[in-house]
Amino acid sequence: MKEIGPVRPVSLYLHFPFCVRKCRYCDFLSGPASEEERDNYIDLLCREIRLRSSEVPGQVDTVFLGGGTPSLMTAAQMRRLMECLSDAFAIFPGAEISMEVNPGTADGEKLRSFRESGINRISIGVQSFDDEELRLLGRIHTAGEAREIFRAARAAGFANINLDLMSALPGQKMDTWEHTLREAVSLGPEHLSAYSLIIEEGTPFARMQLPALPSEEEDREMYHFTRQFLAQNGYRRYEISNYAKEGYACRHNCGYWTGHDYLGLGLGASSFLNGERFKNPDAMDQYRESVLRGDIAGLQQEKELLSPEEQMEECMFLGLRMTDGICIEDYQSRFGEPVEKRFGEVIEKHLRQGLLCSGTVEAGGITQHRLALTEYGLDVANYVMADYIL
Ligand code: SF4
Questions:
Q1: Residues 333-352: tens digit of each pLDDT
Q2: Which atom in ligand 1 lies closest to the alpha carbon of residue 102?
Q3: Any idea what the CATH number is for the domain that residue 318 is in?
Q4: Does residue 273 sit within a domain?
Q5: Which of 61, 113, 163, 244 is the most exposed place for a label (fewest CB within 10 A)?
Q6: Ligand 1 centroid to 73 CA: how many Å?
Q7: How far is the CA of 172 from the centre of ligand 1 (A)?
Q8: pTM for the full model?
Q9: How close is the Cα of 32 to the center of ligand 1, in Å?
Q10: 319-337 per-position pLDDT tens digit
């Protein structure tokens, strides 16, 4: 294991761009591939990890294996990857190490092996507990298979499980969404993500004749029901679309919303390090060549150094996604000026309009002053966030 330095912790994101087949609504960088292509990709990923570990001088406190479908990896591939990661980076002993898992791609034995290789949190792509909806979405699994993989994950020792759900589906009514939420809660996961479907250009959904989408009112009704129902069942909303039992907010995603540095590894993965954003190539040939040549510059495409103003804007509109909002003292120590200097007027306006509230929180004997969106502010978050663009 690498020596630990006195630098602030960093997150790692590893992209696994393979799926059994493409879901009809998906525009992520992913697609089907042969066993051999997947194995070659793990080789490349391990090379890239060794090549780039020097970009992260400090400890790693969260790792996220996303995709695509990382659970298509075999147990042996995952062991190889995790060994490579822990040789190359100083991974904090209590690090949150998450992996996306899709029903139909892992059994109990594979999940046990994933757990043994150090993965301690999984995020299951369930989307719906209605088989009709799953078929329409083009998912490869049934609701029964989603329940099965959840139980297998528990039996394999996972004590921190998220279920990803999707509302506002074509033809969806309040009763099927309510059924999905009730089924999800009955399994007792620690965390739930509930996003509304967005029909992306270039996907089959954008070309298909689909059953009618829920109206804006129905969408709002689903959103409000979600919040109330999950609150009644012990899940606190901590971000616009994310809910968790006490102590189970996703540390990796909270890092994104609080401006934490992260290094993205793998095809098309994005990074944000020391105020600079860049990403790996999206094309496999180009990615492979850069990794094989050891060409770090080729892996840092679309480089963009964010100005202090851009970082301040991001701090506001990402931080305000979280129900705890932003800490005024943290803002001041990060940017060397009070939040009112740039945002005083808009903060005043939003306080007056009941979109924002301020308060104090005691954390570890320290009093923090926080600014957060109200329920109403979260409801119209898109409109509110636009006001924080300088
Ligand atoms: S499993 Fe996820 S990443 Fe893969 S095609 Fe479906 S939605 Fe996209």
A1: 999 999 999 999 999 999 99
A2: 1
A3: 1.10.10.10
A4: no
A5: 113
A6: 15
A7: 20
A8: 0.94
A9: 10
A10: 999 999 999 999 999 999 9
